[in-house]
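ARCHIVE CARD
SHELF: 3
SLOT: left
DATA:
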Amino acid sequence: MISSPVRKLLIRFSMLTGGRLAGAAATLIASLLIARQMGADTLGELSAILAVISVLSVFLSAGFPAVATIFTVEYTTNPRQGHLKGFIQAGWKHAFFGLVICIILAAVFFAMPASPISTPALAGGLTIITAFLLAITV
């Protein structure tokens, strides 16, 4: 029989791996459906938009995912719990300002008539998808 800490670790690992696999499968299915229903050109445009969004997400995260684990553990073991609350509040402020930046960037790109984002395929519904993806990037 596997010991309790090892069992917990294996369960968490399998849940995280399963979540990643489910996300990858959902992305694959969505790509296939978009290519099938809207054509390869639209899929190419969406891929370009997703590439821009993933580059933005690197800059907008500002390292919070990496330091959140360290600070959460450190501030939880520290008897002064106010530090953890302050860190969480700072994270929410950062996320809010990142969202505002994304909305402004999306408004600027969609307003530009010669923008690579304002293509005929996007008029058919991808504009909403793109705006949603930009908003959840933060």
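SLOT: right
DATA:
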Amino acid sequence: MKDISNPLIKAYYDALTPLGYPVYEGEEPDDELAKMYIVISDVSSTDASAKSNNAHNANIQVTINSWEVKYNNSKSLNTVAGLVLTAIKPGPVSTLTATGIGIVTTTLQNDNTTAYGKLSGRVYISRNLIFSHLISY
């Protein structure tokens, strides 16, 4: 058995950093000022090995957080979500590459938007994308 979390998170980080928005692993810092930023959550996985191969089914959540003063209609949030989706899975059969593991398949398991409401004049909205992977090594 092998740790797949670090290589998978690094593959996400490498794919999302070029988008030009702050990217964090786990949670954002308390002093984040950017109106749009991305958080990569921890990996959850289960062993899917067979007699002839080692494999895992893994899930990872990417959250795009946004805030605007007074009004936030999620247009910018949805644009960035589209960039994230393309970075993670640019085509029907293409997927990320990671060092030390093989990402065999990538599917979007869940996609939802959460409006948190207003706080100190800012309106907060997040988009949560959960990806599933079959990983072999």
